[in-house]
Amino acid sequence: MFEQTLSIIKPDGVAKNLTGNIIQLFENNGFEIKAIKKLILTKKNAESFYYVHKERPFFKSLVDFMTEGAIIPMVLSRENAILKNREIMGATNPKDAAEGTIRKMYAESIERNIVHGSDSPESAKFEISFFFNYFEII
Ligand code: ADP
Ligand code: MG
Questions:
Q1: C-alpha span between 104 and 93 (Å, rounded)
Q2: Domain 2-136, what architecture?
């Protein structure tokens, strides 16, 4: 099924100048960039975006990390975009990520793992609308 997903280059990925490499990888894998912007989240924004994790022990640390610098959210589309993006990103913990995945190549730790990707059609819908208005998605 042709679908859309939300990807974010996290503050560590932006700070390491990996934006170009990451976007290239998405384009090489058949994704079209339907929308893109660069911004800095407030703590409140980051808490809202990650509300599903609010009871987790790493929640505060995750919010601190996600607000330490600019991020680049993007709407990506292709066949099976959600699953395919998760595949290209690799496992949450870079130690478990497959060779050639973004997290295997670039991530420092389970927290500082370079990219975010929606994990279901429901989360993609919420996360896309969190960052983009319908008229910003081409
Ligand atoms: P994913 O980003 O792979 O979907 P989760 O949704 O489980 O992973 O977690 C959201 C984010 O929270 C992760 O990408 C990572 O930055 C951080 N995180 C997850 N688990 C841990 C952990 N055990 N310790 C620290 N940070 C974590
Ligand atoms: Mg997740």
A1: 9
A2: 2-Layer Sandwich (3.30)
pTM of the model: 0.98
Structural domain spans, the chain: 2-136
What is the position in ligand 1's atom list of the atom closest to the CA of 112?
A: 16
Distance (Å) of CA 65 to CA 58, 60, 61, 110, 134: 10, 9, 6, 12, 28
- pLDDT tens readout for residues 70-86: 999 999 999 999 999 99
Q: What is the pLDDT of residues 37-71, one digit of tens each?
A: 999 999 999 999 999 999 999 999 999 999 999 99
**What's the 1 CA to ligand 1 centre distance in angstroms?**
27
Nearest CA to ligand 1 atom 1: 92
Residue 21 has pLDDT above 90, yes or no: yes
